[in-house]
Write a structure and sequence with these properties.
The complex is a heterodimer. Chain A has helices at 14-18, 21-39, 46-52, 57-71, 79-95, 100-124, 129-148, 158-165, 174-192, 194-204, 206-211, 216-242, 253-263, 275-294, 299-327; strands at 167-168, 172-173. By secondary structure, chain A is mainly alpha-helical. The longest helix of chain B is centred in the C-terminal third of the chain and has 29 residues, at 293-321. Classes of the chains: A mainly alpha, B mainly alpha. Chains A and B meet through helix 7, helix 13 and helix 15 of A and helix 6, helix 12 and helix 14 of B.
């Protein structure tokens, strides 16, 4: 199963583009747009399309840093619970009357601390990240519950509320804008810098990456901390948009975020993937749930669909391989 | 010999449970009355069954996150059927529930073994698919206690030696698992697959077969618990057992089942489940809010896993020195 793809730039050929995962994903995206606009006349409305980005921008921000984590052969199931913790910190610091910049700093710090806690346990005790983040998933969510119990926060600084629900120049939602800027930065780091190359080599083979002098533990720790930070950023946008924080906020998001990453062609055992693929898959899932929503398919239908898509997107290639090997 | 028993993990776990019961008993004497202790056992029975079946999956280095959704879906399906055909015998519903559970488990196994979808992706996916299907089949409605036939609910309240039917089922599952894992070829092969998958394949163990078998067993017991859960709480809804998979996994981890595979005993796993069940029941008895439960079980998973890994690493080191 191990793919030894060391990312490098092969000579450019137009025909090669057709075989790329990103190209296939893009075709799927175009198909979904065409089908959706044929089924519902409301789909291709500019304002509707702009507003539909609110549905996925927060998840998309976390999906970017999750891409790094998964490429480095780790996984983080605790992101949604970190959102719950950070949102509680946001609500609490507002309620005791801190200034806006202090409120935001405390929120970001809470996310960083949660992420660093994950990273510390994983690297210090050499425990698989899947089991650690299953633990912290319920620990962090539980902290939010024990702190808020059955109460909720509905007062946030004006700045946070406008971040979550306003538009730049009246057109581009701030959350969406942040996502686009971040995806350019992340793509640059992953595909054009030594840091990105090291993350790929850690994912391909952590042991040999260690022998070449990469401090694998340090990278892992930083990646989990980053994941916590971006969960906190998403928490700010989400709380601002919802204007209400309960402990069950963002419940089940970890699944949707991992689906975004894996559908985007990132190999779940690390070592291969691209930001472009993840960005396209985010748009695919976003437009899909927007289209299904216009058709009045309930949220549950979308959940089932997401789960199926997740399994099939990984299972389909091996399914074909299995049948080919049977026929031979 | 005695020293070995006293310092063994299982014995320490047993000691912690007894110590905990005594401490809570001093704080709240009502908790240690036989009737409330027997309630604790009844309450923990489903957890014991699910932890033992999860153990099989964890032994081969996998995890089944879909058990709670599987349980809820099988429970809902038989509840809906029982409202339409209340005259059917209970045993029919139990068998049906187990079969539905097994089928859902086989789906997991096939996806992992044949489609090669990693277990975490598969079971996270089916966790939401199965949960979503409950809404689909039930239209989001609940089946209330008044809608079940009397027979459907009566079995669960049957008592033997003043312990509930549920507890005796857990005892039966315990004995079955003990024999299966310690005295059959199936059990030995599971341990060797988890301990060293490559070596196990070289000696001719069919890995795919065991993955599918492990997941179908996990599904079978999830289906069984689907009936038990619905009958015990006499309600079937879309929300039942939500998040219970984490409790099950924490019971396994506390019981000393290594997530690296191949390590763990049936007795340890059962004691782990008993400890978690005891803590869940003791918290209200000593006036700790139920909102703390989730955080406490998360903390327990982390502490237990750190202790597990430390002891395992120590063992590895000694092997290298010798």
């Amino acid at each position: 199963m191990m793919k030894n793809i060391i990312p490098e730039n092969p000579p450019f050929k137009l025909i090669n583009i057709l075989y790329k995962k990103e190209f296939i994903l893009f075709m799927v995206f175009i198909t979904i747009i065409i089908i959706n606009s044929n089924i519902s006349p409301y789909f291709l409305d500019l304002y509707n399309l702009i507003d539909s980005t609110f549905l996925f921008s927060e998840k998309a921000i976390i999906a970017l840093s999750m891409t790094f984590v998964i490429i480095a052969r780790q996984i983080d199931l605790s992101v949604a619970s970190i959102i719950a913790v950070s949102s509680c910190v946001l609500g609490y610091t507002t309620s005791v009357g801190f200034d806006t910049y202090l409120v935001i700093s405390f929120t970001l710090i809470s996310g960083i601390l949660c992420g660093a806690f994950n990273g510390f346990i994983i690297t210090r005790f050499a425990i698989p990240s899947i089991i650690v983040t299953i633990g912290t998933m319920s620990l962090f969510r539980g902290l939010a519950y024990s702190f808020l119990e059955d109460q909720y926060y509905n007062k946030f600084p004006k700045f946070v509320v406008s971040l979550g629900s306003d538009y730049l120049f009246g057109y581009i939602p701030y959350a969406f804008l942040t996502f686009i800027i971040l995806s350019i930065i992340f793509a640059f780091i992953l595909h054009r810098t030594i840091i990105g190359k090291r993350i790929f080599s850690i994912g391909n083979n952590p042991d040999s990456a260690g022998y070449t002098g990469i401090d694998v533990d340090r990278y892992t720790f930083v990646l989990f901390t980053l994941n916590g930070l971006f969960s906190a950023i998403a928490a700010i946008f989400l709380s601002g948009r919802l204007s209400s924080v309960r402990p069950n906020i963002a419940f089940g998001w970890e699944l949707e975020i991992i689906t975004m990453v894996v559908l985007g062609g990132v190999y779940i055992y690390g070592g291969s993937g691209s930001i472009l693929g993840v960005v396209i898959s985010i748009f695919i899932l976003g437009m899909l749930s927007f289209g299904l929503g216009l058709l009045n398919v309930p949220g549950v239908g979308i959940i089932i669909f997401t789960g199926l898509l997740l399994i099939l997107s990984i299972g389909f290639p091996s399914f074909i391989k299995y049948f080919r090997s049977k026929n031979e | 010999m005695i020293k070995k028993i006293i310092t063994s993990r299982d014995f320490i776990l047993f000691g912690i449970i007894i110590f905990g019961v005594v401490v809570v008993g001093i704080a709240n004497p009502f908790f240690v009355q036989p009737s409330s202790l027997s309630d604790v056992l009844t309450d923990t029975s489903i957890l014991i069954i699910l932890a033992l079946s999860q153990m099989i999956v964890i032994l081969i280095r996998a995890i089944d996150l879909s058990v709670a959704s599987n349980l809820a879906l099988s429970g809902m399906l038989i509840s809906l059927l029982s409202t339409v055909y209340p005259e059917l015998p209970v045993i029919f519903f139990i068998i049906l529930s187990c079969s539905i559970g097994t089928f859902l488990g086989v789906l997991n196994g096939v996806s992992i073994a044949i489609l090669k979808v990693p277990f975490i992706v598969t079971t996270l996916g089916t966790l939401s698919i199965y949960r979503g299907l409950i809404y689909f089949v039930s239209d989001g409605k609940q089946v209330y206690s008044s809608e079940f036939s009397e027979d459907f609910l009566a079995l669960i309240h049957y008592k033997f030696l003043s312990l509930s039917f549920l507890f005796w089922i857990a005892v039966a599952v315990f004995i079955l698992m003990y024999i299966l894992l310690n005295h059959t070829k199936f059990g030995r092969n599971l341990y060797s697959l988890g301990g060293n998958p490559d070596a196990a394949k070289y000696i001719g163990i069919n890995e795919n077969k065991y993955i599918i078998l492990a997941y179908s067993l996990s599904g079978f017991f999830a289906g069984l618990c689907g009936y038990l859960w619905v009958a015990r709480y006499s309600v079937a809804s879309t929300q039942i057992a939500i998040g219970f998979e984490l409790t099950v996994i924490s019971a396994c981890v506390v019981g000393g089942i290594s997530v690296m595979g191949g390590v763990g005993t049936v007795v340890g796993c059962t004691l782990g489940a008993l400890l978690i069940g005891f803590i869940r029941n003791a918290l209200p008895a000593v006036d700790i809010s139920q909102f703390w439960q989730l955080a406490i079980s998360g903390a327990i998973i982390l502490i237990a896993i750190i202790i597990n890994t430390k002891t395992e690493q120590r063992k590895e080191k000694t092997i290298m020195v010798e």
